[in-house]
Design a protein that fits this description.
961 residues, alpha/beta, de novo design (two linked rop proteins), Beta-Lactamase, 6 domains, five-stranded antiparallel sheet, 27 helices, 16% strand, ATP-binding, HisK_dim/P_dom, two-component regulatory system
């Protein structure tokens, strides 16, 4: 009864009942769906677990049998080494264990057949074939062993069993797939049923809701229409027709009473309206008196507001220019001045004006130390000046017109005059009371200017401190005792990609969340900050975290407490980027591991085969095989050690280079031919697209470069394929491109590829040996040859390594004329002036080996005549000559005085240490005896390279006479 009464009298109860009914129905539907899905999921998982266990046992049985067979074959291959037979027995024990486990969980006919096959094969192999063949081998009956394997079909029996266990494994896998399909169908059916029931539930809910809204909407429309008529001024007598007991019924009854009450009170309102009109006339007379009083109050309020505005203007801003503008403008309004100016008496004479021209401002500042301003400085009291208005100030006035100027000093608390103000009023003097009032205002202005000066000083110190912090290469963060950030530097903002203004005043939780979003080990970092900031762990001052965003970095954070008078008031936190140090440590660890593997592997082979040769009598062909292996592994060790030594010499700057001009095509051909023999799986394609294949370099070091690159191309294309070596010319460079079709290089590893000990972190690469030094050595050698190396690579498609050298253009026979001279091109000729015949011959040999044309003279006059006639490309000159009439200094002075000869490069070769004098006279370089002859050829080549505007080296070919 109570429920029925509640539903009739309360709309909310009706909607609540409807809502509860829908929620309960929907909850029951969801619960039924979840229970059903849970049951089928548990059933499928149990069946899957059994199938997976069977698959693991079958895989282990197959692996154990294969290992036993492999170890038995190894026993036969390595002269009956007992450790291999021990491994066979271990695999036998594993087979027994796994077979027993399979018997325990067998549940169908396929499992029983698999167990029977395994038991049969176990008995056949471990109790028949294995002991019988071992006995034959141990007694030297090798033919019997072969007979067991071939004639008695032991190998075929093994393959039959392997096919059987493979079929069993495939059957388990198919059964697993079938279970998955059944599970998917059941879940789909359940979801379809759920959707249908849910759709029916929604439809019922819509129908019920529409019925209820219709029952509520009709009475509401009647009430709305009656209310609109009353609002329009119509007399409406509303009658309740709903006969409802709920809120709508009560509302209709109340509205009926309200309409009757409005009709009764309408006549009373008409009578009261007449009385109000009479009172209105009386109020209008009183309003006129109040308007006059209000006008006087407004004038007083205007003056007060302007003064308050002046005080706010000087108090609410610390920008000096803005404050000065506010002062002069507001003072003009307070004083009633037509124009004014304020000027600070500091070095910059900062100022602001109102109504004053730029020329007038300039004139006022220019006369700050003279005229009427001097009186103001001496008395420090305001005063006024009456003067006849200027012609420009009169506008259209033609009679005499006076202006009044007020000079007001701005005096600080210490008695110093900080600024000067001047205001002008037209045709209205300043009274004494006004001057006193304005003088008191100037004292308030002085306080404001003092405050600004202090602020500027502190702001300058703050900016200086911030600039110092920003120059530090670590992220600096100062937090108070609550962990709130009170100072930071730009480096910290760069680390976390945030703005400087946003990190200041951040609470501990906010900035820690910002940092944690970019950090991998955020829990460890949070624990560190909690301990040092709040738990008082003074001893723990350092932590390392790994930042993942915006880029991957390793950051070391450490802290120090800040104390004042023995009490802690904050903590300095420093974030230091140690990514490079961390990577170096990782690379060192990897290097130690790599070196251990790369050195131990060949050493193990050398020691193992040496031990076999020492302890056993071997056939000559086997001895040769073992010695060949030892020789190859020893050469491999030699290459590794040479790489380590090369890197050490390069780092120490002790690597020497013997550079000469040479053709790289024969060099590349010989390297490729050697690799073609040793690597038949790779097809080499060598192509030359230029005739300018000369380079200035060390032949042995270039051989090392190309050997390393070709070895890499072979090593990282383990499946064979094409290797392309192309020599071509591009702009002013000679390039050699070595391309393979191998594994390729990940894009993120290319930038690090030339780092020492770096190896690509990839399972395919890790299978391939190496120390990570080859490309680092190549990079350094190319750098010493004024060249470079670049990479283009695509993962799984191959890589292209390109080395480039400065282009060297030689002269061929086709470029010569009929008389043997060069046609259209200058020869590179060198004249040596040296009276020591032995040294002259040595220098001549060195330069001719570098393909220069050389002539030698022992005395000055004949050398000078030859220089004038032949005009060589370079001169090598000794200072002390046999010719007493002309020494080297005389030759230099003479040549520098001839316009056509003064630009010829001169290289002084002398035992006298007068380098400054030689360079001052115009020599290009000065070599003090004794020196390496190769140094002279390099100096000449470098000078000729600089002279050639195209960036190409012009040298004679070996065929030039």
């Amino acid at each position: 009864m109570k429920l029925n009464k509640l539903l009739k009298t309360r709309l909310a109860a009706q909607f609540t009942l409807l809502t509860i009914t829908i929620i309960v129905t929907f909850s029951l539907l969801i619960a039924a769906l979840l229970i059903y899905q849970y049951r089928i999921t548990v059933d499928i998982e149990q069946k899957n677990e059994k199938l997976e266990e069977k698959e693991r046992i079958a895989t282990d049985l197959r692996y154990a049998f294969n290992m036993a067979i492999s170890e038995m074959r190894a026993y036969f291959a390595y002269d009956g080494y007992e450790s291999y037979f021990d491994n066979v027995k271990k695999q036998q024990a594993i087979v027994e264990t796994k077979l027993a486990t399979l018997q325990d969980i067998a549940e169908n006919e396929e499992d029983v057949l698999m167990i029977q096959d395994t038991q049969y094969f176990y008995t056949y192999y471990f109790h028949d074939v294995m002991p019988r063949t071992k006995e034959y081998y141990d007694t030297g009956q090798y033919d019997e062993v072969i007979k067991v394997a071939v004639i008695q079909n032991a190998s075929e029996t093994i393959r039959t069993y392997q096919r059987s266990i493979k079929d069993y494994t495939n059957g388990l896998h198919n059964e697993h797939n079938s279970l998955h399909v059944q599970f998917t169908k059941k879940v789909f059916f359940c979801q379809v049923v759920f959707i249908i029931v849910l759709f029916l539930l929604i439809a019922c809910m819509g129908i019920i809701t529409r019925v209820m809204l219709n029952k509520i909407g009709r009475p509401l429309n009647d009430l709305t229409g009656a209310a609109s008529e009353i609002a329009d001024g119509q007399t409406v007598l509303f009658t309740d027709k709903t006969n409802r007991d709920d809120e709508l019924g009560l509302l209709s009854k109340a509205f009926e009473k309200m309409s009757k009450s409005i009709q009764d009170k309408e006549q009373d309102l008409h009578a009261q309206n007449g009385e109000l009109l009479a009172q209105q006339d009386e109020l209008q007379s009183q309003q006129h008196e109040l308007v006059e009083a209000l006008e006087m109050m407004r004038k007083s309020e205007f003056i007060l507001n302007k003064r308050n505005e002046l005080i706010r203007g000087i108090a609410n801003s610390l920008d000096k220019r803005e404050v000065l503008k506010s002062i002069v403008k507001t003072m003009c309004e307070v004083i009633g001045a037509d124009k004014g100016i304020i000027v600070l008496l500091d070095r910059g004479h900062e100022h602001a004006s109102f109504g004053v021209s730029a020329q007038g401002v300039k004139q006022f500042i220019h006369h700050l130390h003279s005229g009427l301003i001097t009186r103001l400085k001496e008395t420090k009291q305001p005063y006024t000046v009456k003067r006849e208005s200027l012609h420009a100030e009169k506008a259209y006035h033609t009679s005499i017109f006076f202006s009044y100027d007020l000079y007001v000093p701005v005096i600080t608390g210490s008695g110093k005059m900080e600024a000067i103000m001047m205001y002008t009023r037209f045709h209205q003097p300043f009274h004494e009371s006004e001057i006193e009032e304005y003088d008191s205002l100037s004292k308030q202005l002085a306080i404001s200017l003092d405050k600004i000066q202090l602020f500027e000083q502190s702001e300058s110190e703050r900016l200086l401190f911030q600039d110092i912090l920003n120059t530090i290469n670590e992220g600096i963060q100062l937090v108070d005792v609550d962990g709130t950030v009170i100072q930071a530097n730009q480096k910290l903002c760069d680390m976390f990609k945030c703005k400087f203004s946003t990190i200041l005043n951040k609470s501990y939780s906010d900035w820690l969340e910002m940092v944690s979003q970019t950090v991998k080990n955020s829990d460890e970092l949070k624990g560190f900050f909690d301990r040092i900031l709040f738990n008082g762990h003074i001893g723990e001052t350092m932590c390392i975290y790994h930042q993942e965003l915006p880029v991957q970095k390793v950051i070391q954070v450490y802290s120090e407490p800040l104390k004042r008078n023995g009490e802690k008031f904050g903590t300095v936190i420093v974030h230091r980027d140690i990514t490079k140090e961390y990577e170096v440590d990782v690379m060192k660890s990897e290097f130690v591991s790599t070196v251990s593997h790369e050195l131990r592997t060949p050493l193990a082979s050398v020691l193992g085969f040496t031990e076999l040769m020492l302890n056993k009598e071997l056939k000559p062909e086997r001895q040769k095989k073992y010695l060949t292996t030892i020789y190859k592994e020893a050469k491999r060790l030699t290459v590794l050690i040479n790489d380590f030594l090369d890197v050490q010499r390069m780092e120490a700057g002790k690597q020497s280079y013997d550079k000469k001009y040479d053709d790289i095509v024969p060099l590349l051909s010989s390297i490729i031919e050697a690799h073609e023999i040793n690597h038949p799986n790779h097809v080499f394609h060598f192509q030359t697209k230029t005739t300018h294949t000369m380079v200035l370099g060390d032949k042995d070091k270039l051989t090392q470069v190309f050997t390393n690159l070709i070895n890499n191309a072979i090593k990282y294309s383990p499946d064979g394929g094409n290797i392309y070596v192309t020599v071509y010319e591009e702009e002013s460079q000679l390039k050699v491109a070595i391309k393979d079709e191998g594994l390729g290089i990940p894009e993120e590893s290319i930038d690090k590829l030339f780092s020492k000990f770096y190896r690509v972190d990839n399972s395919d690469y890790r299978k391939i040996g190496g120390t990570g030094l080859g490309l680092a050595i190549v990079k350094e050698i190319m750098k010493q040859h004024d060249g470079d190396i670049s990479i283009q690579s695509k993962l799984k498609e191959g890589s292209t390594f390109t080395v480039n050298f400065p282009l060297v253009i030689g002269y061929s026979d086709e470029e010569r004329g009929k008389n043997g001279n060069l046609s259209g091109m200058n020869k590179v000729n060198v004249i040596i002036v040296e009276d020591d015949s032995s040294l002259a011959a040595l220098l001549q040999t060195e330069l001719e080996e570098s393909n220069f044309h050389v002539k030698v003279f022992s005395e000055g006059k004949s050398a000078l005549a030859a220089i004038k006639e032949e005009r060589p490309d370079a001169i090598v000159l000794d200072i002390m000559l046999e010719d007493k009439g002309m020494n080297g200094w005389d030759i230099i002075k003479h040549l520098k005085g001839i316009e056509d000869l003064k630009l010829i490069p001169i290289f002084i070769s002398s035992a006298l240490d007068e380098k400054e004098k030689g360079l001052a006279l115009g020599a290009n370089d000065y070599l003090i005896k004794p020196y390496q002859p190769s140094k002279l050829s390099k100096l000449i080549l470098q000078t000729l390279l600089k002279k050639d505007w195209s960036g190409q080296i012009l040298i004679p070919s070996e065929n030039d006479e």
